[in-house]
Structures are given as structure tokens and as C-alpha cells.
Amino acid sequence: MAIDFRLTARQRELQRQSREFARDVLSPALDAEALSSPEERFAATKPAYEAMISAGFLRKCIPLSAGGENAGLIDTAIMAEELYALNASVALTLIGTVLGLLPLLIGGTEEQRGRLLRPFLRLTGAPLAGFCATEPGGSANAASPPPGEGVRTTAVLQGDRWIIEGRKSWVSSATGWDRKGADILSVLCRTDPDAAAERAISVMVVERPASGLIFERAIDAVGHRAHLLPQFNLKGVSVSRENVLGSLGGGLALTAACFTGAAALVGIFAVALMRAAFEFALGFARTERRGGIQPIIEHQAVGYALADAKTAIEATRWLCWRACQAVDAQSPSAQELAIEAKIHGSETAVRVVTDLMRVVGIESYDHALPLGRLLQDALALPVFGGGNIGVRRRQLHAILKRPKYDPLAAVSEVEV
């Protein structure tokens, strides 16, 4: 029977290792979130991130074909759930680096991957990568035709070098540990000012140290308090023409391919936060009487709330795993399922965590308890990786409008 939601022995071991690492290393690193500035908080997570690299978690996200240990997006999802449930900030630094590598992994040549991936395959250091798509003022309309601006960052070829001018923001870890840039940045930029967007925009790799990368500020985000989200300027940044990823002018298609897998992982982030909130609320309900005779779990309303939360967690996880499987299999339904996992998971997480805060009551509003932090992290999920309003309209709506769209295609695929 093709449908089987059980883990393989290898996947169960990956889950166990990830869970233990998160408990022993990432959970104590939550103390960084109490520091005063975004950069201080991010810097304080570096030892935990270095430990994550040393334990091989980045290698576990890089495909076997590129020299890593990853057998597919389902494996990444299993690992990400465990890490993110205990420390969303540091886990996002890891997954943000993977997103920064995706244009290289998907669109890069063998020579480019061999040359640029080396630091990310080692078990030492704290290598970072970032996908520089979002710009100040928003990038929801990156493909907009004139008079819309679309992608405002430009790259002009001078001899054998591209010169990049523009600004980016909300890019995970992009300015690095020292404001001098991540090890590599995959930069979305306009390479032809006159062509239509689908032929005018490219992705190219900026290698560290990047002269002309100017730090502007670290965004003081509501959640993911120890994760770096900088705003920065690319002023005359010079890039070899050999660092264009995929086809010149094919950047929008490459970006879409990268964000399909990322969308499914946003759904897994939602599962992780809901799971952490549920585990706390369940323990609270089993032990707290709140001045009454019996633990509050004995009250019907509390039991119903916990049951609804657990149902939402399981349903979201299975949808995300299905989406990851579709991405791994390069299914025609992969994009639809990944977007649905992202939208459903992210919006369900905000609702579920809020419902569980009501179970706990006013004390859930105290930062001494984890629920407020989990809600702050959950609030990001509907708006990052492509905001849900825009994703619904530009991607899912567009799929549904296709003349040959089959609403049963995703449940009609046959194992080959």
C-alpha cells in the first residue's frame, strides 16, 4: 500500500537526534531572547548555531547529490519540527541558510556548487546564507509590469563583472555575525531594464566579504527575537558573471521553485509551535486546579479545547508531510499542496496558540510562561515566506484559474 505515514528507522533516528539536540542545546539558548538589542540577541546564539553545524544539521539539509546527507524534504521537515519547537530563532537561522542555498542547489551548475558549497558541508564554523528577495517597501509585486516598479535592485554588466545597486530587508542573517555579510547571498535583481519581468530578473551569488554591503539596521521583530533580520544596502557590489544562478533573466522562475519547498516548511513551523503550546497547556491542565476541587482538565470546556488543538496539530502535520512528499517527487500538485500547507498551517497556529492561552488564563500573558513567546513567533508565519493574502491571490488563485486545473489531481497520483 503506497499510503504510509510511519517513519522509517532512519527517520525515527533523525527525529530522536533532533529532539535530544533541541532539548540539550537549543532550549538553554532561549536565554538570548532576553538581551536588549537584536544584534546582541543574535550574537548570543552563535555557540548554539556552531553546535548545530558541528552536529551535522546543516549537512542533513543539503542533498546527497550536492555532497550533503539529505534524502528529501520530508527528512528536513522531521528535523525542523523538533528544532523549531524548542527554539524558533536558532532553528530559523538554520532554515534561513538553507533557503539562501536553494537557488544554488536548484539552479547552480556543478562547478558553482562545488566552489560555493564547501563552507556549508564542513562540520565547523558558523556559515550563513541568505536569499535576498524582499526590498524595503515590499516585494509582493516583484513581477509587476510598468508602471509598477517590481524588483528595484539592479545589476549592470561591466566587463566580466555585475555591479549591483539596491536595498534589501527581512533577509535572514544576511549581514552575518559582523555586519560584513553572510558567507553567500543569493540576490534577486533586475538585469534587463527593458524586458518583461519573466526575462528581466536574475539571481546571482554575492560572496563574503562583500565590499559595498552596507548595514542599515536590524529589525526589532515581534517574534523570533534572537534571529537576525537586517535591512541593508548593496552599493556598487561587484559580482563575477560566473555567479549568475540558472539562466540569465530566469530569476522569477528560480525563486518560485525555491519558495515551493519553503512554503511546506512554514507549515511545519506551525506544527512545531502548536505542539509546544499544546504540551505546555496539557501539563498545566493536568496539574492546575485554579482554586477548584479537581484539575481543570476534568472540565468539559478545557477537554474540548485540548482535543480541538490536538486535532489541528495532527491534520496540519499530515498535510505538510504530503506537500513535502509531492515536492520530493516533483509532482504536478507540489506547488498547490505546499501553498495550502503554508496557508492552513500558519493561520491555524495563530488560532490554536491563542485558544490554548485561554485554557491557561491570564498567566499565559506572563513571559515566564512560554505561550506568549510562541504566539509572537506564530504571528510571523502568515506574513513571511510570502504573505498569505498575496500567496492566495498570485499563486493559489492562479492555479485554480488554469483551464485544465483538476481539483482531484492531488489525490489521484499513482506510485511509479
From TrEMBL:
GO terms for biological process: butyrate catabolic process; fatty acid beta-oxidation using acyl-CoA dehydrogenase. SUPFAM superfamilies: Acyl-CoA dehydrogenase C-terminal domain-like, Acyl-CoA dehydrogenase NM domain-like. Keywords: FAD, Flavoprotein, Membrane, Oxidoreductase, Transmembrane, Transmembrane helix. GO terms for molecular function: acyl-CoA dehydrogenase activity; flavin adenine dinucleotide binding. Residues 131-230 form the Acyl-CoA oxidase/dehydrogenase middle domain. Residues 8-122 form the Acyl-CoA dehydrogenase/oxidase N-terminal domain. Pfam families: Acyl-CoA_dh_1, Acyl-CoA_dh_M, Acyl-CoA_dh_N. Coiled coil: none annotated. Its cofactor is FAD. Residues 249-396 form the Acyl-CoA dehydrogenase/oxidase C-terminal domain. InterPro entries: Acyl-CoA_Oxase/DH_mid-dom, Acyl-CoA_Oxase/DH_mid-dom_sf, AcylCo_DH-like_C, AcylCo_DH/oxidase_C, AcylCoA_DH/ox_N, AcylCoA_DH/ox_N_sf, AcylCoA_DH/oxidase_NM_dom_sf. The chain crosses the membrane at residues 83-106, 252-274. Belongs to the acyl-CoA dehydrogenase family. PANTHER family: ACYL-COA DEHYDROGENASE, ISOVALERYL-COA DEHYDROGENASE, MITOCHONDRIAL-RELATED. This is Acyl-CoA dehydrogenase. It comes from Bradyrhizobium erythrophlei.
